[in-house]
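Recap from last week: sequence in, structure out.
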Amino acid sequence: MSWAVATVVACTFATGGGIATASQLADPKITAADAADATPLSAVGADPGVSHAVPVSQIDPRIGAVFSGGLNGSHYCTASVVNSPGGNVIVTAAHCLGSMSDVFVPGYHDGKAPYGVWRLRRIVVDSQWSTGSDQDHDVAFAVVEPLNGRNIQSVVGGYPLGIGQGADSPVTITGYPETTQTPITCTNRVSAYSSTQLRIYCTGFTGGTSGSPWVNASGQVIGVIGGYQRGGNTADVSYSVAFGQSVKSLYDQAVSA
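Predicted structure tokens:
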């Protein structure tokens, strides 16, 4: 969300394409009507749009917290593992990855790193983000170093990357608020905010949840909290860049080395 702001450094930049840059968007007026529009239906089950704490026994190891400097630092964003040929790629928001000293801790809870602490080898953001913080390119991939001779995907698994999935589908978002030691999760239906941005109503996604994956019914990551206003200026309405060809280009850059 907009509370978690970082400057991207020490990155490999990719030239994006395929998603046109949107003109400046007006501030959204979040009303009960917005919530109703974004929260239909039986397809998302009980309590659509309401977040819940994830019990430790149910924490998905593919999702984790991003820490500044190490496990003894503070966690300020969320990321997830995506399937890749090398088994070593995570996805998050571009405004999340500010330093090569940041680490990813999958399945984090209560000060524990049950699957290890994974260091970054390379960060990939779009040139339109690195030069102008273009909200339509607030997505980043990072290649993580092996740990104890294994790549991260072989340890925790990964999500398929969903490109061009569009709006109006239910997704589940899971992320780590800065003020909690376990993640929260919420399911609701996505709506289109613009031709390049998606929006969802889900309560309680405060600072620290930027980069949280949007996982559809097919198990694909189709977005991450970020984009418009770096994810939104309220805790209850979040945004994502619509994953199109520019995101696919970033992914290709990440897996190419």
